[in-house]
Structures are given as C-alpha cells and as structure tokens.
Amino acid sequence: AIEDAVTLVHLGSMATIGESWQAIGGWLGDNDAEPSGACRELYLETPTDSQDGWVTELQQPFVRRT
Question: How far apart are CA 15 and CA 51, in angstroms?
Fold first, then answer.
C-alpha cells in the first residue's frame, strides 16, 4: 500500500512524456516532498494507429520532507 502519491494524466505520444515527469518533479519541489519508491506508468488507452491518442497515468509515491 502507498499512502501518498502524486499523479498526472499524460495525453499523447511518449515522445513528450518527459515533460509530464518534469511537471511531477516540479510539484514535488513546490510541495516540500521527495520521491519514495518506484514510479509507475499506467497505460489507460493505447490505440494502435497513433500514439497521439494514448492516455497514460503517471504515478510517483512521495513523502513530505517535514
């Protein structure tokens, strides 16, 4: 079980997923938190004709620094 995780839904190609992970990193920094455990990607929709229609949930467990 994970008590706290920041999540984000990434829409589109894996070519730009790094920007979404950076947004999660920014949230962690802005909220006095740090990663705790492995991150995950949950592929919710993966149409085979184009990655432009992909829907991916990013999950990063975290702990508060304080």
Answer: 9
